Amino acid sequence: MKKNILEINHIDFSYGKKKVLDNINFSIEEGTFSVLLGLNGAGKSTIFSLITRLQNLVVGEISINNFPIKDYSNALKDIGIVFQEPTLDLDLTVKQNLYYYGSLKGLDFKQTLFSIEDEIKKLELENHLDTQVRNLNGGHRRRVEILRALINKPKLLLLDEPTVGLDLKSRFDILEYVRQLVLTKNISVLWITHLFDEIEEDDNVTLIKTGKIIESGIVKNIIAKHKKENLVETFNYLVR
Predict the structure, then answer these.
(1) In the chain, at which end, N or C, are there fewer CB atoms within 10 A of the end residue's CB?
(2) Whole-model pTM?
(3) Could you report the per-residue pLDDT of 175-199, keeping only the tens digit for each?
(4) Cα angle: 100, vertex 183, 33; to 5 degrees
């Protein structure tokens, strides 16, 4: 039986007097591709911020690989993070961005490149290592951010709206690459999105609306439960 790599229990969160998360509960199993799906403003990025400790958790519990999030040195050591907003240094080359991040993880230049050597080729970045990031297109920049997140060989990869603003081919190339990480590296993935076409029927999905979980489970089972034709119809039915 697979264990849960991420557990979120009874989370509430407010910005001042405005409550944006209300009793959030969900988990993802080790070695699975899981999706947090909701419209803009639903609370997805706030959950992401709490998992990554960009926001302080006050009410509820989060654990990663059985470590409570408040034990952040252990809880966060085995995760990789891809933020929605770009976080690369545009004036550095791809290689320099990777080296800098690797140094924060205690790796020297050779160790950094060795840790991601195969992934550089799979992401087709071997000819861009000496390119200044500002000269890359959006799709290649996003690939570099994913590559950077893999340097410490994470057990859990968190991606917040990773394909927003990309063309269709770039979106699905990145999505397929991340799905392959689950299959070949046994990495657990939490893919946060508002895009329905990125979700497959065997994915584990958690649906969120205005700070509340409205459904969770395997996509095809949720669709069957509510007797709808597809996930879009099911979601629209649940948020009506």
Answers:
(1) N
(2) 0.94
(3) 999 999 999 999 999 999 999 999 9
(4) 80
